[in-house]
Amino acid sequence: MMGPVLLVGCGKMGGAMLGGWLDRGMDATSVTVVEPFEASAAIVRDMGVTVVASADEIAPDAKPAIVVFAVKPQQMADAAPAYAQYSDTALYFSIAAGTPISAFEDYLGSDAAIIRVMPNTPAAVRRGISVACSNANVNDAQREACNDMLEAIGDVGWIDDEGLMDAVTGTSGSGPAYIFLMIECLAQAGADAGLPADLAMRLAQATVSGSGELARLSDDEASVLRKNVTSPGGTTHAALQVLMADDGLQQLMTRAVAAATDRSRELAKGG
């Protein structure tokens, strides 16, 4: 770590990041959280972290090395400018979907060091993946510090072209919802086939989570793992004939990711 951290917003994702940092050994006294909602603030206090309700309550002599924005995108225009006073020395990184680096340069100054990050909700169990993109003002030490903080909640990838962040949002940012829907659909299909609903849900959850872990740990690509479990003329082959048809899962997934990507672009333009 480079020094004190100021976390602006501590909802679900902000709380997940904070928990990951503390689990990795970050000193709770090195973090200050700005959180106006008392229910969330109380949870943070129980972690031993200092909490204030607004930027006005931050100690006048505070010198954060890193300022993390974890507020909703629609709140960012009101929230971010209050932290421009730290731009001479601090790294800023934001997890606000659809808010481009250029917007933060407007809020904080063109010389500010800014990293835009897209995490996803498995960060809550330290199994998320975050993709980051920085402006030209970010130095190597700041990039490494951001990477270390993101690794506390899962895997990390970097891109140079910020334009790809919309596709990242459509693939991994929104992606957990696609997997949760798959669990719902698989469980319902099992129930429709005659299984008790609770057993069908257990089977669906365990199958999806176990398969994901197998794919993560295996040296084989997903296509190879699929073929390994598919016997010619067997039950899996019969199911895949449906899922891999011309109007099957790939076409649906491509359309879904494209829709999310397009919506991310609209949000970036204020739509």
Describe what you observe in this structure.
The structure is a single chain. With 271 residues, the chain is of the alpha/beta class. The protein folds into two domains: 161 residues, Rossmann fold (3-Layer(aba) Sandwich), CATH 3.40.50; 94 residues, ProC C-terminal domain-like fold (Orthogonal Bundle). The chain is built from eleven helices and eight strands. It has an eight-stranded mixed β-sheet with strand order 3-2-1-4-5-6-7-8, with helices on both faces. The longest helix is centred in the C-terminal third of the chain and has 21 residues.
Question: What is this structure's SSE topology?
Answer:
Blueprint: E1 5-8, H1 12-23, E2 31-34, H2 38-46, E3 50-52, E4 66-69, H3 76-79, E5 91-94, H4 101-108, E6 113-118, E7 128-134, H5 140-151, E8 154-158, H6 165-173, H7 175-192, H8 197-217, H9 222-228, H10 235-243, H11 249-268
Parallel strand pairs: 1-2, 1-4, 2-3, 4-5, 5-6, 7-8
Antiparallel strand pairs: 6-7
Helix pairs in contact: 6-11, 7-8
Features:
271 residues, 11 helices, 8 strands, 48% helix, ProC C-terminal domain-like fold, alpha/beta, Rossmann fold
SS field, number of helical segments: 11
The CATH superfamily of the largest domain is known as: NAD(P)-binding Rossmann-like Domain
What multimeric state do the chains show?
Answer: single chain
What do the pLDDT scores average to?
95
Helix and strand composition category: alpha/beta
How many domains make up the 3D coordinates? Answer: 2
Roughly how many Å apart are the termini? Answer: 37 Å
Q: What share of residues is helical?
A: 40-55%
By CATH, the architecture of the largest domain is named: 3-Layer(aba) Sandwich
CATH class of the largest domain: Alpha Beta
